[in-house]
Design brief:
alpha+beta; 12-stranded antiparallel beta sheet
Length: 330
């Protein structure tokens, strides 16, 4: 069997197309791009996406290590994380494809598909285009091949061991570290709380200005873990424009809207059938059930706190209906 690293190396050796881009393959899936579009082919079908939407989704799929559950790049193509191995699919969660038995799905070891996707992102991302940034803060992905943006696509996701700013943990963001306040959060106070710990507990008691921390995020739709207690993870994120993926849950996600607003399209996870339209405004709390998919639209840069339960047993418990998909009954 050809490994993902070997596939990526093979892709590196390929001749570029007339636009300067290489093509890639993993299993029966083949990927190519031109000036405007990403083209995906598999045995029995083909699909085309705008390349900016494809790269934004690809960036998150890689940096989130395929995330919790399903990462739909759009209504046709995507991945499903089985935590050690990954499904790459076309039409699997599309009612029309399923009705015509046109879906296609292949399973790979995580490292195998990751190697191919990372090589593809590296080759297809042009100089000046940051797939994590808001449209106003980045250049265009379109046109023939020109340079790269490895500094942006190799940006590490921030993950706290206990809490951001604690001793031996990830530091608070600051001007000195290059984390400037985003243009749309210029009015967010930057003062920090005073902490007066009892003697002997100086390394155990900590607090920081969460709004100030989030206001300095240079990426969008990318939750970073800022506190972790066993499986409980509190994630900070700023949102602007469109969530580049349609996330299919395999557990409940809690959302706390901290500022401004986000409009959410909520659909059935497996079929895409509409289930709700939710407008969250500052102070609103929502629990996204374990059996839905969602995509958000943020008219202005906003702050969202996401609470994730990292318990590895949850997907099976929900799949076997030992837990209800919704955490609360009203």
């Amino acid at each position: 069997m050809t490994t993902g690293q070997e596939v990526a190396m093979m892709a590196e050796e390929q001749t570029t197309n007339e636009y300067g881009y290489r093509s890639f393959a993993v299993g029966g899936f083949k990927f190519a791009r031109d000036e405007y579009f990403a083209h995906v082919a598999w045995p029995g079908g083909t699909h085309t996406m705008s390349v900016d939407a494809f790269l934004r989704a690809l960036m998150r799929d890689i940096s989130w290590s395929f995330f919790y559950g399903v990462v739909n790049f759009d209504q046709v193509f995507g991945t499903t994380n089985h935590y050690g191995n990954v499904d790459v699919f076309a039409g699997l969660y599309n009612a029309g494809y399923r009705a015509q038995n046109k879906q296609h799905c292949e399973n790979f070891k995580t490292e195998e598909v990751r190697a191919v996707f990372e090589a593809m992102l590296d080759d297809w991302t042009n100089e000046g285009f940051d797939p994590f940034a808001a449209p106003e803060e980045t250049g265009t992905p379109f046109g023939p091949k020109r340079g790269n943006n490895r500094a942006a696509i190799n940006r590490k996701r921030l993950v706290a061991n206990r809490m951001t700013g604690m001793k031996a943990d990830i530091p608070l963001r600051s001007d000195a570290a290059g984390n400037v306040v985003n243009r749309q959060f210029a009015d967010v106070p930057q003062d920090q709380p005073e902490v007066h710990a009892e003697a002997g507990f100086e390394d155990e008691v900590h607090a920081f200005n969460f709004f100030a921390y989030v206001s300095r995020s240079d990426v969008t739709w990318n939750p970073s873990v800022c506190s972790a207690v066993k499986d409980s993870q509190v994630c900070a994120t700023t949102e602007e424009f469109i969530l580049p993926i349609i996330h299919g849950n395999d557990r409940v996600e809690w959302f706390v809207q901290l500022s401004d607003e986000i409009h959410w399209d909520i659909q059935d996870r497996d079929t895409g059938a509409p289930r709700a339209r939710v407008v969250m405004k500052a102070g609103d709390v929502a629990a996204m059930p374990a059996d839905i998919r969602h995509q958000g639209y943020s008219p202005k840069r906003s702050m969202l706190l996401v609470w994730e339960n990292n318990d590895a047993t949850l997907p099976e418990l929900y799949a076997n209906k030992k837990l209800k998909p919704n955490p609360v009954d009203f």
